[in-house]
Amino acid sequence: MTRCLYILVLVSLSACLQAQSVFSITSGRWVDITTWSGIVPDSTSNVSIGFVHSDTIDSATFCNDLTIYGELVIDDGGSLYIGGDLFIYGGTLNIDSGKAAVIGETQIGGNLDIVDGPNAYIQFSGSVGNDFNTNMVIHEGGVIVYSGSMSFAPAEEEEEEIIPVE
């Protein structure tokens, strides 16, 4: 009987320690519970930012996986540590004087905008790919640091004037 109870407790504990899915239900601050579906994301959370939502990070934050369909802004004083994978699908990750680190794979199918260097940077440890002919804009002074591999799909050939970002 004691052995069965012990096994039941272990199974329950392991279920609690697994990653929990959290998604935005409105725009707002990352640390505000009203932004999310039940809990504020933590290092074990798999987070999704909704299509019409714009969420802001202005303090140290953590998550496991992050999928962005809307917009995520990392503001001055904000930092985001992603222990798993980052996927941007039609959304935008805007690093505005903030910092981000990604340990797992990154797929950019939206916009990555690094605005205010040298305080704004992103660090990748896993592979980075941009297979959807989308934008990665690094403004003057913005920094990307990576130790994995980076691959990008060629842009469609069009006759366009290239205008530098100021």
Could you explain the architecture of this structure?
It is a single chain. The chain is mainly β. The protein has one domain (20-152). The protein has 1 helix and 16 strands. The strands form 2 sheets. Strands 1, 2, 3, 4, 6, 7, 9, 11, 13, 14 and 16 form an 11-stranded parallel sheet that branches. It has a 5-stranded parallel sheet with strand order 5-8-10-12-15, with no helix packed on it. The longest helix is centred in the first third of the chain and has 16 residues, at 2-17. Residues 4-16 have low confidence and may be disordered.
Overall SS class:
mainly beta
Tally of extended strands? 16
Average pLDDT rating:
77
Rounded to an integer in angstroms, the radius of gyration calculated over CA atoms is: 18 Å
Number of domains: 1
Profile the largest sheet: 11 strands, parallel
* H/E topology pattern: HEEEEEEEEEEEEEEEE
Helix count from the secondary structure assignment:
1
Shape: globular
**Uncertain spans, ≥5 residues at pLDDT below 50?**
4-16
The helix content is under 10%
N-to-C terminal Cα separation, in Å?
Answer: 70 Å
Strand content: 35-45%
